[in-house]
Amino acid sequence: MTTRRPGADPDPDDERLGMTKVRDLVLIAVVAGLALWILIRYNYGSFPSLSWPSGAFLYLLAAIEVVTGFIVKARVAGRDIGRARGQLHPIAAARVMVLGKASAILGAIAFGGWAGVLVFLLNNNILDAARADRPAAVVGAIGGLALVGAALWLEHSCRAPDDPDADGDGADAAPA
């Protein structure tokens, strides 16, 4: 870790938008799962029954992001990024990467939340309503995982071919 003098210019690498870390997504999913498990544990009777379309929307988002990832990856590989007509504008590529980061977080929250609900439902064999809600929780949890995967793919697709982080941590990159 390097220390800077007060008033010194910030390191440009400190402000760089990096790839989403899987450990961060796991932490988000665990926190969301615990929160939803606690919420549903004490308030299950006041919730309406769960329907499977409520989690199915995540599949639509995942499909859109996978398709967008293939389009962006083809443009990046073909070096078809620029300001000319018909090219992918660099700001649009940055926005797509941010969409991927935000969607990965949303998918982690969705997966964790649905998994927390599912854990409660699997442990509650007394109520018929709990058994009836299990398929919706499974659909939602898998949809959250699908969205995380699609979002990470979308984010990966935005990397430039000569990006030092493309193959690893950038340790073998030439110093600036």
Any chance you could write out the topology, listing elements then pairs?
Elements: H1 22-43, H2 53-77, H3 90-123, H4 128-157
Helix pairs in contact: 1-3, 2-3, 2-4, 3-4
Would you mind describing this structure in some detail?
This protein is mainly alpha-helical and 176 residues long. It has four helices and no strands. The chain is elongated. The model is unreliable at 169-176 (pLDDT under 50).
* Radius of gyration computed on alpha carbons: 21 Å
Q: Mean pLDDT, nearest integer?
A: 83
H/I helix tally: 4
Q: Which sequence of SSEs, written as H and E, runs from N to C?
A: HHHH
Main sheet properties: none
Terminal CA distance: 18 Å
Percent helix: 55-70%
Strand percentage lies at under 5%
> Count the strands?
0
The dominant shape is: elongated
pLDDT < 50 stretches: 169-176
**Helix-strand category:** mainly alpha
Number of domains: 1
What labels would you give this structure?
single chain; 176 residues; mainly alpha; 63% helix; elongated
Offer a concise description of the structure:
It is built from four helices and no strands. The chain is an all-alpha fold and 176 residues long.
